[in-house]
Amino acid sequence: xxxILIGGAAGQGIDTTVAILEKALKKSGYYVFTxxxxxxxxxxxxxxxxxxxxxxxxxxxxxxLDGMIALNDETVSLHKDKxxxxxxxxxxxxxxxxGTQVIKLDMDQMAKDLGNIRVSGSIAxxxxxxxxxxxxxxxxxxxxxxxKEQYLEVNxxxxxxxxxxxxxxxxxxxxxxxxxxxxxxxKALAMGAIAAGLNFYSAYPMSPSTAVMEFLASKxxxxxxxxxxxxxxxxxxxxxxxxxxxxxxxxxxxxGGGFCLKVEALGFSGIAEIPLVAVDVQRPGPATGLPTRxxxxxxxxxxxxxxxxxxxxxxxxxxHKDAFYQTIRAFHLAEKxxxxxxxxxxxxxxxxxxxxxxxxxxxxEVAVPADAKEIKGEYLRYLITExxxxxxxxxxxxxxxxxxxxDEHDEYGFITESASVRKDMMDKRxxxxxxxxxxLLEPEFLGAKGCTDLLLGWGSTYGPLAEAVKLLNxxxxxxxxxxxxxxxxxxxxxxxxxxSAIANNIINVEQNATGQLAELIREKTGIACTSHILKYDxxxxxxxxxxxxxxxxxxI
Length: 556
Hints:
By secondary structure, this protein is α/β, with parallel strands linked by helices. Helices cover 36% and strands 21% of the residues. Helix 1 packs parallel to helix 4 (120-131) and helix 16 (462-475) packs across helix 19.
């Protein structure tokens, strides 16, 4: 398994360089996993991506580098200590880097000689592919998808120039992933929405959720999806609710600050029983916080967002594959139970790229509104039922009047202030939770089933925890296991109760400062964690970091 870093200032073409390398390495058969670290600015600063690749599935990044493409001196000074003994630094000859690990090429001059100063990144890509013993067999097809046609020839020449300028340092590893897909978490989520039959998406641009809207907009002509860039967050969620009421499968997306503005309308979804899928791609707060960084600090907020009480579901997306399938499921549950379903992603998952097995579309199930033909006699939109689910018709599709109201209402949907009707309607809505609990997915367990040390996590900590448990059990076989929650509210408790009963230590791992999952678990079950590993500096935790914290006994 290899690991390289590509770093420089914003505007130096890091994203394009990484995208070409990812595609080339995946086409070579490697499993590819890339994380991105970038500042909130258009030019300057220090940005970098870490690209890890190998012949087996990879779930986490790692700071130990086999190589580095340094586009400026700052990249060298900040990351040179992460290089392995056989690692290399590839950079332009104008940089100040010195030492036996440094490979200097006059890339800027090479690019000028080729007639385009901007192709220096392609020179670097060619050199890196050679250093890792790769061929250029597929590079022409890859470049056709990455650069404009008029610049294709010069970029291919640049790649060959870089390739011919170095000698191989590493050996190619055979992998079987060339026919798999390469997706970011946000693209996987968006593809899940498309597969679920999304008709309408509304959002206001907010990092890091904007990638979802951008992908859906790029596919809107092919799919027939209406993608609306709303004037603000409040308009975005109300547009989605209006579309859903009218019969469209609708979704809205944002990040934490934007979700704050959506909460009153979220309550409208709850009381009016209008299905809605809402995405929160988390970033550090409060307020503006760190707009381009990652955190898991919105959990308790979204569980209780909006005044009053109403049923909702919160699903934390664990990885790229999970993002696809859970998004489909979110649409199904939102429609079936006529509730808001909130999907929690974060910048780490949303912006990271992974190799993903082609999706299986054969088992997709998404509930549909009621059939008007099944309504016998008078139609009551909010009919009191045993399971709390009333027949939902689409206005204009039948002779029946379909009401919706943000005030409390009776079975017809007419406003009421009756104390008894209020209680009956509240009870009706809340009964949905009891039925919803039957559909909850238990957290995924990884590691040794007889573990004495149980790690807990949720959402995107899945990958780092998977690697941590593997590392820990290699050193102390059979001792460690992990439960990683996807369905998180209502909280599934069967596996948690089972494994906590045999564990001597319960170690909570989260990307927030207060241990929000641990607090939720204690509130709902009385089970208390014995220690915590919490990271909240805006950077994603790695499997190795988790293992090191446990090995050194530095638990909080």
